[in-house]
Hints:
Protein name: HMA domain-containing protein
Distance between the termini: 14 Å
GO molecular function: ATP binding; ATP hydrolysis activity; ATPase-coupled monoatomic cation transmembrane transporter activity; copper ion binding
Bound molecules: adenosine-5'-diphosphate, magnesium ion
Order of helices and strands: HEHEHEHHHEEEHHEEHEHEHEHEHEH
Largest sheet: 7 strands, mixed
GO biological process, one term: copper ion transport
Structural class: alpha/beta
Subcellular location: Membrane
Strand content: 15-25%
Helix content: 40-55%
Keywords: ATP-binding, Copper, Copper transport, Ion transport, Membrane, Metal-binding, Nucleotide-binding, Repeat, Translocase, Transmembrane, Transmembrane helix, Transport
Number of helices: 14
Radius of gyration: 22 Å
Amino acid sequence: ATPTAVMVATGVxxxxxxxxxxxxxxxxxxxxxxxxxDKTGTLTQxxxxxTTAKVFNGMxxxxxxxxxxxxxxxxxxxxxxAIVEYxxxxxxxxxSSPTYGGQSNSKESTTSRWLLDVSEFLAxxxxxxKCFIDGKxxxxxxxxxxxxxxxxxxxxxxxxxxELEEGAKTGILVSFNDSLVGVLGVADPxxxxxxxxxxxxxxxxxxxxxxxxxxxxxxxxxAKEVGIQDVKAEVMPAGKAxxxxxxxxxxxxxxxxxxxxxxxPALAAADxxxxxxxxxDIAIEAADYVLMRNNxxxxxxxxxxxxxxxxxxx
Length: 314
Ligand code: ADP
Ligand code: MG
């Protein structure tokens, strides 16, 4: 392609909200063989919401949620935000609570009066959070967090979590001191265009793959919904770049689509890094392409544009 053709293609991209950082990236996109999608916030809306809150030890549900929300209040994770939001709503409509907000208070002011003091807060990437409340150790996170902390998971709890995961939900376990006291189920719906884009990629001869830190059962359920056959689950934040490199081993051109801080090493490692415009600045900086419309259909637009620009008569 001539420099003029590259300039025109870059302009066409820009008009469609596809920002391309340079002609090399534009050229590489035509050869993409694998598109590795991050799950949370990329294939899914990244708007998680709690669908279930189950307490196993007879504790009052409002009080349970107050403890869990207090532990998660300092976390930036989308799951944490969903939990705090749910607990706040639950509390707001719970008239029996001593700090009931009633009609006259905003939810915000209610929350600040109702959250408990937390000490020694620790965010554990790929696992959850850990802190102390009222002298008790509180853990909120996945199985790995519980197992590594030596907290046994009773069979009844395990069965409940499996049920959530088979329904494409993420199960979040909660322990106080050394015992498991409850489980939350969190759902994060797919973006509406996700399955159409996945089908489109297969038709173009490109293989979509999903990568996630979430557990394999939830990952498998989400992959099935969206139509992706190849899934890498329970990948620790630092491991996404290794997943990219494993697909590059045979010389294949690999694209990564992601939105989070966690995704930036993988976006940089990929031959073509594609960031969602609504994603974090670090991801956008690490990428070669930015999708300003936050629409996954533009992954196809990007590949098409490159193929058309560099198409040669053979
Ligand atoms: P993803 O790749 O899906 O964005 P992360 O690596 O951020 O996943 O997290 C992986 C898993 O770690 C989550 O699915 C969840 O089980 C657990 N986790 C991480 N942070 C938290 C948190 N603040 N609260 C509860 N669980 C968490
Ligand atoms: Mg993400």
